[in-house]
Backbone:
């Protein structure tokens, strides 16, 4: 659906980009050149686990999600909202973007509730309830470039570790009230692969029916399933355009990537 | 000088308050009840040193300033801009203040330059150059309550550890363009003491001439000197009202404290 709304680009960068300073510098340089309203969401990479181990904690992941007890929450908040968020923000400002590093706590921008832990106790992990999109819109309208880490809060003083893909899709949904939102999930591969062993098997377009077929064939691996679920949910809630691809898609419009559609 | 400007209250809380969860909760509760535009600046307390030691680093202070090499800068950024800033912000939001946690990096709000290290090499420590007061004013006008940690940047991607008292006075100076600024430095004592051994020797008012006399008598101890220098500098640059006192001054208007005047 075409409307008269302004375009907004949301880029989510994953852990493998964060962990490689050369890739990160390249992505930030490319991101800084995107014209018009934009927003960056970053994951955490392996830094939090490295710091946790040095502090004598034992990082534990189940189904790609971090078990976050009180001590691990402190490490995650320090690493994501402190170290990574401020370094990325400083680099973007050096690239002449008026970046503002934010967590979901700041300005009550992303309210969550502690995940119901029926099967596994993930600890202080949040499910997003709402986005303060009016305030976020005002910041963006003042030419600021929000840079989000994946920390949220429950409104009662408790910080919560939250999935960065979900943060990106929830921000995209809430801002689609004001903008035609293009959401790009960047990672180390060129897109969703039909065969995870074959880097050249990028699927150029996936709609819901394709997704169902791929799931039945067992062609989609576990880490990609929640990402694609997020994508279809975001499209159903008004996000105009979603891409999954290598970070080179930010600048190279002719590169190969996966477009998700309903 | 009385003007028609709105009043703005800036509270700076020091390390001893940060280190004591009960004092901190009380201060934040009191702060949350201040009416009208306001802003909080927090120091770091001993948390950064504790984390640094756990990570195998050796914290080193000279004249109350932290020697900040690359590894220590990471710890300071994690602790101040991550852990402490987000915990304080989440607690203020739970108290119904629209708090937004900020460092000087965010929105390019506080630009610094690396301190000239003629005598001692302090490392990545910043001297404030400028405050983006127009942007800060817009945030405050949108009913946000900025919560600043003492991390700034040099505009070229380098983060810098910066003195929190100086951050508070520089913010006060820059915002005095828009507001009648009241700046309150809160710490564990009731005010500036004539005799550091006697808690009842609070000096109720110090002007420049008194300060000179006290310095000559050796009555002002080392940690208080840069704080008072900051105060006189801020007053000379347009800040209307400066108080040094115990955090109970935030609510108890009849308590004893030190007023600084020119």
Residues:
């Amino acid at each position: 659906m075409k409307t008269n709304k302004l375009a907004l680009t949301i880029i989510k960068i994953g852990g493998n980009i964060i962990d490689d300073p050369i890739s990160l510098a390249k992505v930030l340089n490319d991101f800084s050149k995107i014209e018009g309203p934009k927003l960056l969401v970053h994951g955490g990479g392996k830094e939090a686990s490295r710091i946790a181990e040095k502090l004598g904690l034992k990082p534990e992941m189940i189904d790609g999600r971090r078990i976050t007890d009180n001590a691990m929450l402190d490490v995650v908040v320090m690493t994501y909202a402190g170290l990574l968020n401020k370094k990325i923000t400083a680099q973007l400002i050096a690239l002449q973007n008026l970046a503002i590093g934010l967590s979901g706590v700041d300005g009550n921008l992303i309210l969550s509730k502690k995940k119901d832990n029926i099967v596994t106790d993930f600890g202080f992990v949040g499910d997003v309830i709402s986005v303060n999109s009016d305030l976020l819109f005002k910041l963006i309208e003042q030419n600021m470039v929000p840079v989000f880490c994946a920390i949220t809060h429950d409104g009662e003083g408790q910080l919560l570790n939250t999935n960065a893909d979900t943060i990106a899709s929830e921000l995209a949904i809430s801002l689609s009230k004001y903008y035609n939102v293009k959401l790009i999930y960047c990672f180390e591969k060129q897109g969703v692969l039909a065969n995870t062993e074959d880097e050249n098997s990028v699927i150029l377009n996936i709609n819901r029916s394709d997704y169902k077929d791929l799931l039945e064939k067992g062609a989609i691996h576990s880490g990609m399933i929640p990402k694609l679920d997020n994508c279809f949910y975001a499209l159903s809630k008004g996000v105009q355009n979603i891409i999954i691809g290598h970070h080179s898609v930010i600048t190279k419009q002719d590169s190969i990537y996966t477009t998700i559609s309903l």
Remarks:
- Residues 6-188+246-254 of chain A form a domain with the Carbamate kinase fold (CATH 3.40.1160.10).
- The helical segments of chain A are 15-18, 21-32, 47-54, 70-94, 133-141, 164-175, 208-217, 224-236.
